[in-house]
């Protein structure tokens, strides 16, 4: 595990090496708490690799068909779909990136994109024992859940989210982030641990 000593340039270098070494797109997974900067990092990496933003896979577009406000810690995302997608990329069984997305509001659509040079997937619980065998390079953004949650609340207020949705950060999302970190210890699973200062 590289604890941010080389920051973003090291992430670019290691991803580039994997692209050259493998006969398929490497799977790069970026994890962190809500509000930690996962999406920003994923899109930055994608841009530097020539990957379009529509080829990045956010797990918040892969929700399970559940009541998102009542779902338990690992029930929120559609893990069978996520694992199947990663397996297909790893085996090179498809030349295109295809999966069915489902948003927080339940809206579904088919994603059909050219397979990118690297598959970048980002999400709050993407680093877990079940996914690690399917990931070539794992990144954890190390920001405390409470701090990340405050950033997320500010972002969501700017996006016009309701007071009820903002309250969920204090009653559900932040506490679940604390529990996830306690149970899974994603820092120990990650190949690279980055702090926000490493991304400047």
TrEMBL record:
Keyword list, A-Z: Kinase, Transferase
Protein name from the UniProt record: Uridine kinase
Domain of life: Bacteria
GO molecular function: kinase activity
């Amino acid at each position: 595990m590289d604890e941010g000593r080389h920051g973003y340039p090291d992430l670019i270098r290691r991803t580039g090496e994997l692209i050259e070494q493998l006969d398929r797109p490497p799977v790069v997974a970026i994890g962190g708490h809500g509000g930690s900067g996962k999406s920003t990092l994923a899109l930055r990496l994608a841009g530097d690799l020539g990957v379009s933003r529509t080829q990045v896979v956010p797990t918040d577009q892969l929700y399970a068909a559940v009541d998102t406000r009542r779902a338990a810690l690992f029930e929120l995302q559609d893990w069978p779909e996520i694992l199947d997608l990663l397996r297909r990329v790893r085996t090179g069984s498809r030349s295109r990136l295809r999966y069915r997305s489902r948003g927080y509001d339940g809206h579904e659509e088919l994603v059909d994109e050219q397979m990118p040079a690297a598959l970048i997937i980002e999400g709050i619980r993407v680093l877990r024992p079940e996914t690690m065998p399917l990931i070539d390079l794992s990144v954890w953004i190390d920001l405390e859940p409470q701090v990340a949650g405050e950033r997320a609340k500010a972002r969501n207020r700017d996006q016009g989210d309701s007071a009820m949705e903002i309250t969920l950060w204090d009653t559900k999302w932040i506490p679940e982030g604390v529990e996830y970190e306690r149970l899974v210890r994603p820092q120990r699973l990650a190949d690279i641990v980055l702090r926000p200062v490493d991304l400047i």
